[in-house]
Design a protein that fits this description.
Rieske Iron-sulfur Protein, alpha+beta, globular, 191 residues, single chain
């Protein structure tokens, strides 16, 4: 502890900076919260991520082609119309499949046969951007992990350690909407 007549030491300065850093990391600095960076929330609508300035027009079932290919989308707050595109971890893949082919919990998370998954591979954080039409599977082009969208985006093969995080959907006034947050961690797990 510093006495009133002493100057601060290097240790005092480092302790103060450390405390400030912990406050920022802990999220106690509200100025850092940005709506466009927040993860998808219940009630968010989904909009196409095509182009530099995505349209705030919500996607409907008819916008997603039956049998693929996937459509890339961002969540959008319906009240403020803020598109949550500030973090690449918010990018979502939407695939419309025959509802009868969906297995287990995947059927419950789907809306009209449309399933939604994180577009970020949990292996190395690359974007899952390839559609294999004859097998109706998703592929990460970085290290060739393959995912089955009919079974919760389970890993078919490749180095990915786990399935893509699912985003449960619902239909709200004819538009595709988020029913619940992502079912798991998006992207890679730090070691």
């Amino acid at each position: 502890m510093q006495k009133p007549d002493e100057r601060p030491t290097r240790r005092d300065a480092l302790a103060a900076l450390s405390a400030l850093g912990l406050a920022v990391v802990a999220g106690t600095c509200p100025a850092l919260a940005q709506p466009e960076n927040e993860r998808p929330r219940e009630g968010d609508l989904l909009v196409s991520s095509e182009g530099e300035n995505p349209s705030p027009k919500p996607l409907t079932l008819d916008d997603i082609p039956l049998g693929g290919p996937p459509i890339q989308a961002w969540p959008m707050d319906p009240a403020s119309r803020v598109i949550r595109m500030g973090s690449r971890l918010n990018k979502v893949l939407l695939v419309r499949l025959d509802p009868e082919t969906l297995v287990g919990v995947t059927r419950e998370r789907a809306a009209g046969g449309v399933v939604a998954y994180s577009a970020i591979c949990p292996h190395a954080g690359c974007e899952v951007s390839v559609w294999v039409p004859d097998q109706k599977t998703l592929e990460c082009s970085c290290h060739y992990s393959h995912y089955n969208p009919r079974e919760g985006a389970a890993v078919i093969d490749g180095p990915a350690p786990r399935a893509l995080a699912a985003l449960p959907l619902t239909i709200a006034k004819g538009n595709l909407a988020v029913a619940k947050p992502f079912t798991g961690r998006v992207g890679i797990v730090p070691t």
